[in-house]
Amino acid sequence: MQYNPVAPVPWLFEGLWQDQAQGGQAYRLTVYKMSPCPCGAEPGSSPNSACQACGGTGILYPSAARSVLGIVTNVTLQTDLVAMGLAEPGDLQVSTRPGQLHLDPFDLCFVPWSMGIPMTGELVMRGTGPTDQLNYRAAMVEAAWTVDPTTGQITPYTVLNDFTVRGRTVTWVGRQPPAGTQYTIRYSGDFEWVVYKPPDQRVAFGVDLGERAVLRKRYILLKNAPPLSLLEG
Fold first, then answer.
1. What is the pTM of this model?
2. Could you tell me the CATH number of the domain that includes residue 21?
3. Rounded to whole angstroms, how far apart are CA atoms 62 and 126?
């Protein structure tokens, strides 16, 4: 008996996406399309390493945010991507809904995880003003503390009573470490993700199945990238 595959139909995938979205398995990602920075000396030349706009990366995000529905998973569940060297532990995979915005390498993506990704802590040097800056946006903050190396005393600082955090900005409102003192702050970071390599274009029986893209943390892929002004505040 000859096998005759039945071609899937678009409405079937549309219904599947609706079910996954309603079941909390899909996320509505915020996407900023990348644009090349015109800081080079001439067309085709390398980016200006001293450029304050792109940090020498050659990548800008001047356009307004777009929205994309996608299923986000950890790449450790996708052994084929890791085995082929297309992803590494810590990356994310996003499978986008068919017929949406096309993703390009270096597009900036945000996953709406309200709790962020827990971190062991970040070392911050206390400045002379009322605020300090974190490396990443904070989704949740636990506490901060300093130590006296000579006595071993640990001095804790509590959220709201001693300091507040909004985005990347730590604002001291009560007790605080002396200026020039290093302190530790533990929080869950809301990382910035960048599309790594061109996404897979998936088609079966002439039907668009949506793209599959690998997302990598921006600070890893674009090591010298400056903080994004569109995220401040």
1. 0.69
2. 2.40.10.370
3. 32
Q: How many domains does the chain have?
A: 2
Residue with tokens 């990348």: 34
CB 58 within 8 A of CB 37: yes
CA 159, 160, 162, 166 dihedral sign is: positive
Q: Give first-to-last CA distance, the chain, whole Å.
A: 65
Q: Which residues contact 48 (CB under 8 A, 6 or more apart)?
A: 39, 40, 41, 56
Picking from 116, 88, 94, 97, the residue whose alpha carbon sits closest to that of residue 107 is 94
The DSSP bridge partners found for residue 60 are 35
Tell me the per-residue pLDDT of 162-181, one tens digit each, with 9 for 90 and over.
Answer: 999 998 899 999 999 999 99
Residue 1 in any domain: the answer is no
Both 103 and 164 in a single domain?
no
Domain that holds residue 61: 10-115+190-230
Mean pLDDT along residues 113-132: 88
